[in-house]
Request: fold
Amino acid sequence: MLDRDVIKIGTIRRTHGKSGELQCHAENELWENADAEFVFLDINAIYVPFRVTDWKTKGAEDLIFRLKGVDNEVAATRLLGCDAYMLRSDVAAENAESLLTWQDLTGAKVIDTEQGELGVIRSIDETTANILAELTDGRLLPLHEDFIVDVSREQVTITLPFELS
Reply:
C-alpha cells in the first residue's frame, strides 16, 4: 500500500475503558462521512489494517474505535501513538474530488511568485503544529494554507512572506 492510497485521520492518544477501545484525536472529519470497514495504523512504517467493529465520536475532535482483535487494555496500550489512516477510496464521494492532503504535495514543484521555481518537495513533516516541506536540496519551507496561491497535482505555487537563504 502506498502513502497516496491512504489519508491520515488522526493519532491514537489513549485507551478508553478496559475493553480495548482506543481514543483517536481526529485531524479532520473525513471518517464520520466515510464508508470504511478498516482503519490502518502506522506500525513501524507499515500500514496495518484493523477491522472496525464499532466507533463513535467523543466531543468535537475525538473518535473512539473498537478494533477486531484488540479486546483488552494491554493490547490497546501497544497501539498508543500510532497514526490512524483510512483508504482514500473510502472517502465520501462529495469530499473525494476536492480532497488534497499535505502528503499529496510530495514530489510537487514549488514555485514562488517572486523568486520562481524553488525546487521539488522530497517530504512533508506533519509531526508538529508547524508543517514543513523539505525540498530535494535540503531546504525547509513552512507550509500553511494561507501561503498557498495555487495547487495542482503537478505544481504547487506558494507565496512566501520571507526570503529564502
The CA atoms of residues 73 and 142 lie 38 Å apart. The helical segments are 73-77, 93-96. The first helix runs from residue 73 to 77.
